[in-house]
């Protein structure tokens, strides 16, 4: 089924997000909508989603957390398929798209990649005519991404209309048939053949190939003796329905950026939840941290430390926490931007909210709902909110998720400047993170940190 849009405009309050959009997305093709954060890509996709026969997978898929993956798929049944027919299709799709996916796993224990495939299966089982994927690669490793697009191509060849929302120039060029470029809510360019795409025409894409280039600022940093703010020794945790942490020892040095890299299957999400207090699972180990000039040693044996205790462990509001699940754990889709930004304040303060909005350079109003924001816009606002507390330690889960290339590079430079200012930064990432902006790297494999 083709989708034809004509003279589409959309505003949220005083903010005009889409301006006179006219475009056609043809069936039998993989169509890319390319643009920077806040360009209007997701808003345009949400409008298309209102057509019958359209299935859309959001950056943060809407799933029932307490149910298993299989139960979520059954929950989406809007067809006349019998339970036996659905079960057979699930088995067929799983074998092709995600053979290692545990269908009995509850959603709250799933990593971002597992949530994505759970949402994808719940749509494909019921044979949509149009499939929209919002930033799919941001939740997948390189092998999963290659498998995804290898499987999408036959679906397009059989007539499915596939629309990819992305800020990745390389992804659009390599895997799609057409490219529609959005800038500031308008169509800046349309390419009926992706091979004709002129990457140098768009400023927000110019730095994509340079994200991992050498940072000249690093050579200016003088080597000094290690000054550890926090040390974790032999952390262990054995949740029932998620990957275990078998042995994790690491140290966070004051004024340094530390990267922990791994996948959700290796226990990265488990570790993130333990370190941010967003898990009820028990944890064993030892922690040593500095409170003022005093060293505090604690043997850990706890179940369910709250984020509030984590935030205050080095002093009041001394630890900033940004979860990988930014929409539901670091924010909430039912909150206004003002409410979300004032979450650490005694009351909602519009002037404070606008000060954060201006620092983040995000085009939004304080009374807009957070679920109207793109993933990159929400990421920037949450970081500025946390930095307003002037923390000593910043813990970031999947910080580049949802950011376009220029924003990702600016974000990494911001982290580096924060570390130069004495902040301690911990990054947990399942995707490639520019190592040039880090000082120490740990790899998490099968629950063991090395």
Description:
This protein has a six-stranded mixed β-sheet with strand order 4-5-6-3-7-8, sandwiched between helices. Strands 14-15-16-11-17-18 form a six-stranded mixed β-sheet, with helices on both faces. Helix 2 runs parallel beside helix 4 and helix 10 (350-360) crosses helix 11 (375-387). 28% of the residues lie in helices and 27% in strands. The model is unreliable at 206-225 (pLDDT under 50). Strand 15 (393-397), helix 12 and strand 16 (424-429) form a beta-alpha-beta unit. The protein has helices spanning 41-49, 69-75, 83-97, 112-124, 142-157, 169-175, 268-276, 307-311, 337-341, 350-360, 375-387, 405-420; strands at residues 3-12, 15-25, 30-34, 54-57, 130-134, 161-166, 178-183, 186-191, 228-237, 245-253, 257-261, 282-291, 294-303, 319-322, 393-397, 424-429, 440-445, 448-449. The chain has 450 residues and is of the alpha/beta class. The longest helix has 16 residues, at 142-157.
Helix content: 25-40%
Radius of gyration based on Cα positions: 22 Å
Structural class: alpha/beta
Note the total helix count: 12
Largest β sheet strand count, sense and barrel closure: 6 strands, mixed
Strand order, main sheet: write it out.
4-5-6-3-7-8
- Percent strand equals 25-35%
Tell me the distance between the termini: 50 Å
Shape: globular
Q: Secondary-structure element order, as H and E?
A: EEEHEHHHEHEHEEEEEHEEHEHHHEHEEE
Poorly predicted runs are: 206-225
Extended strand count: 18
Give the overall pLDDT as a whole number. 85
């Amino acid at each position: 089924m083709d989708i034809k849009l004509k003279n589409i405009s959309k505003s949220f309050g005083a903010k005009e997000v889409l301006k006179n959009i006219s475009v056609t997305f043809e069936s039998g093709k993989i169509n890319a909508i390319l643009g920077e954060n806040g360009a209007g890509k997701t808003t345009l996709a949400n409008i298309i989603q209102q057509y019958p026969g359209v299935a859309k997978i959001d950056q943060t898929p809407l799933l029932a957390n307490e149910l298993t993956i299989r139960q979520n798929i059954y929950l989406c049944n809007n067809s006349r398929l019998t339970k036996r027919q659905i079960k057979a299709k699930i088995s067929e799709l799983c074998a092709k798209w995600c053979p290692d996916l545990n269908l009995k796993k509850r959603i709250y224990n799933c990593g971002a990649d597992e949530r994505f495939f759970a949402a994808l299966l719940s749509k494909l089982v019921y044979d949509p005519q149009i499939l929209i994927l919002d930033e799919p690669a941001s939740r997948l490793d390189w092998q999963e991404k290659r498998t995804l697009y290898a499987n999408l191509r036959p679906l397009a060849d059989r007539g499915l209309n596939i629309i990819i929302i992305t800020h990745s120039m390389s992804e659009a060029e390599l895997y799609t048939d057409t490219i529609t470029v959005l800038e500031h809510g308008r169509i800046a360019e349309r390419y009926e053949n992706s091979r004709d795409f002129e990457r140098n025409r768009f400023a927000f894409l110019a730095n994509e190939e340079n994200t991992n280039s050498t940072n000249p600022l690093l050579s200016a940093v003088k080597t000094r003796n290690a000054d550890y703010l926090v040390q974790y020794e032999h952390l262990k945790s054995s949740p029932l329905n998620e990957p275990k942490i078998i042995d994790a020892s690491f140290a966070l040095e004051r004024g340094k950026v530390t990267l922990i890299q791994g996948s959700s299957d290796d226990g990265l999400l488990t570790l993130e939840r333990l370190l941010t207090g967003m898990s009820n699972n028990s944890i064993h180990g030892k922690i040593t941290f500095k409170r003022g000039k005093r060293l505090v040693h604690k043997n850990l044996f706890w179940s369910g430390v709250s984020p509030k205790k984590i935030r205050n462990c080095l002093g009041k509001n001394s630890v900033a926490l940004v979860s990988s699940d930014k929409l539901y754990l670091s924010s909430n889709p039912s909150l206004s931007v003002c409410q979300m930004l004032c979450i650490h304040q005694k009351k909602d303060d519009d002037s404070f909210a606008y000060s954060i909005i201006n620092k983040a350079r995000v085009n939004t109003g304080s009374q807009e709902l957070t679920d109207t924001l793109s993933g990159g816009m929400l990421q920037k606002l949450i970081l500025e909110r946390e930095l307003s507390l002037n923390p000593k330690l910043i813990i970031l889960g999947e910080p580049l998720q949802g950011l376009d290339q220029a924003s990702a590079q600016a974000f990494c430079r911001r982290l580096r400047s924060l570390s130069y200012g004495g902040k301690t930064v911990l990054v947990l990432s399942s995707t490639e993170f520019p190592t040039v902006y880090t000082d120490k790297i740990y790899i998490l494999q099968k629950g063991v940190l090395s």
